[in-house]
Amino acid sequence: MKRESEAVLAGDLILSAASIALARIGNTTVISILTQVIEDLVRGEFLQLGSKENENERFAHYLEKTFKKTASLIANSCKAFPEMNAMIMRRFSLPGDVDRARQYVLQSDGVQQTTYLAQRYCHEAVREISKLRPSPERDALIQLSEIVLTRDK
After folding, report:
1. pLDDT digit string (tens) for 104-126?
2. What is the pTM of this model?
3. Does the N terminus or the C terminus of the chain have fewer Cβ atoms within 10 A?
4. Which long-range contacts (C-beta less than 8 Å, at least 24 apart) are formed by 79-88?
5. Is 96 helix (H, G, I), strand (E, B) or coil?
C-alpha cells in the first residue's frame, strides 16, 4: 500500500511539474493542445488497468489505450508545432520540407528516446523468449530482436 501511495504522489508531482512548464510557455494554443495530451495519457493509464474478456473487445480496448497513451502525444504535439504540422499535412511536398523536418528531429532527442525504448523492449522480449525451451524458432526470435536494433533502415 505504501508503494502505491508513493507512485500516486510521484505521478502528482510529475503532473504538477508538467503544468508549471506548460504555464511558462505562454502560448494558449500550445497549452490547450498539450493539456489534452496530458488528459489522454492519464485516461490511457486508467484504460491500461482494465481488460476485456472478449477478444474483439480486448483489441478495441488496446487500440483506444494505445491512442490515448501514444498517438495522442504524437498527433497533438504536431499540432503544437504548426510548421511541422503543415509539412506533414502537405505530405512534405514543398522543396526543403524533408530537410527542415529532418533538422527538427535531429534537434530534438526523439531519435535517442526511440533508440532507448527499442533497446528496452527488445531486451525485455529476449528475456521472455529465453524462458522458452531451446529450439531453432526460439533462436530465430532472439536473432530477430537483435536485427531490429542493429538495422540501418
Report:
1. 777 777 778 778 888 888 898 89
2. 0.41
3. C
4. 79/33, 80/29, 80/30, 80/33, 80/34
5. coil
Mean residue pLDDT across the chain: 78
Same domain, yes or no, for 77 and 13? yes
Beta carbons of 145 and 126 less than 8 angstroms apart: yes
DSSP 35-70: HHHHHHHHHHHHHHH---SSHHHHHHHHHHHHIIII
22 and 57 assigned to the same domain = yes
Mark whether 9 and 55 lie in a shared domain.
yes
Q: Per the structure, how many domains does the chain have? A: 2
Tracing cell 523468449 back to the chain, one arrives at 129
Contacts of 85 by beta carbon, 8 Å cutoff, 6+ apart: 78, 79
104 assigned to some structural domain: no
User: Are 30 and 88 within one domain?
Assistant: yes
Residue 144 has pLDDT above 80, yes or no: yes
Of 64, 94, 124, which closes a domain?
94
- 31, 39 in Cβ contact below 8 A? no
Residue 33 in contact with residue 79, Cβ under 8 Å?
yes
The range of the structural domain enclosing residue 129 comes to 109-153
